[in-house]
Specification:
binds zinc ion; seven-stranded mixed β-sheet; 2 domains; single chain; 11 helices
Length: about 300
């Protein structure tokens, strides 16, 4: 039996109220009039008594789960196996053998030939996203080993502009494919993306053709491409390399599609079936070859590589 820590109580500790009373008394004899901003900062202090994010409510089973336990379980809920979204670096850590991954092409940065501006100019948005996510682009690629088999691995990163495919993401994916072709390595691409990056307009759409053409050359050279689809894989990524795998794995209950369900429903004006655009449904439709839970992913990839004789 495992001992799981008990959830912290949500009531404020009595000591903070006492400390507040003490400081008020120290400030002067007259009881201080509390303003709204005082109250707000008091509430903030009270809230911070609980370390933020130690516990979280699982969107799959609505249970309170302990974050460390979830992280130790490969970022899956220990109760219902809900698969949480991963950053590219965490994905690489989970998939590859320890200390075998060597990242490549991490210095690539997009230009802004369109001088695109939405709420803010594109370069400003890129800088803000880099600060927020701690990475410089939406794709991490490199060589590594999975259960002792050498592979070329590329993982999209949702934390950077929702893993959208701009010119840099497309370029890294293409170089990864070309490197796999030259070195005769099995290629594993883990996709999660909101689609093409609208800030780069036509340039990001061109990445669809570029990655697909590189995959065609890789296929002619006899390469093995394992495409792993995770939640969510949509838009231009689905419409290009993600669907071109020799074998396509999907994580359980991942949203995989081109346009979102709402857009489709509004267009065809029909009720969509249960589980529409989810991995299990796509498996029955033949779009996905196998639904693989995260703990089995390494084993399944290694098995396919062996099966294909790579
Ligand atoms: Zn759960």
């Amino acid at each position: 039996m495992t001992t799981s820590p008990t959830p912290p109580s949500t009531t404020a500790p009595a000591s903070s109220a006492a400390a507040l009373a003490a400081t008020t008394a120290k400030a002067g004899k007259r009881p201080a009039v509390r303003t709204w901003s005082d109250l707000r900062s008091e509430t903030a202090t009270r809230r911070s008594a609980i370390p933020e994010g130690l516990w979280l409510r699982c969107p799959g089973c609505s249970q309170m789960i302990y974050r460390r336990q979830m992280e130790a379980n490969l970022h899956c809920c220990p109760e219902c196996q809900h698969h949480y979204r991963l950053s590219a670096s965490e994905r690489v850590k989970q998939l590859t053998d320890p200390n075998t991954f060597e990242p490549m092409w991490q210095g690539l940065r997009p230009t802004d030939p369109l001088k695109f501006r939405d709420l803010k100019p594109y370069p400003e948005r890129l800088a803000a996203e880099a600060v927020k996510s701690g990475v410089n682009e939406g794709c991490l690629a490199g060589t590594g080993f999975i259960k002792g088999r050498p592979v070329m691995l590329a993982c999209l990163d949702l934390s950077f502009m929702l893993g959208s495919m701009g010119s840099v993401v497309g370029e890294i994916i293409t170089r990864a494919i070309e490197h796999a072709t030259a070195e005769n390595l099995p290629l594993v691409i883990v996709s999660c993306s909101g689609g093409a990056r609208m800030q780069e307009s036509g340039l990001s759409l061109m990445q669809m053709a570029k990655t697909s053409a590189a995959l065609a050359r890789y296929d002619e050279a006899g390469g093995l491409f394992i495409s792993v689809l995770t939640d969510p894989t949509t838009g231009g990524v689905t419409a290009s390399f993600a669907m071109l795998g020799d074998i396509i794995f999907a994580e359980p209950k991942a949203l995989i599609g081109f346009a979102g369900p709402r857009v489709i429903q509004q267009t065809i004006r029909q009720e969509l079936p249960d589980g529409f655009q989810r991995s299990e449904y796509l498996l029955t439709a033949g779009i996905v070859d196998r639904v693989v839970a995260r703990p089995q992913l390494r084993t399944e990839i290694a098995r396919v590589i062996d099966y294909a004789g790579k």
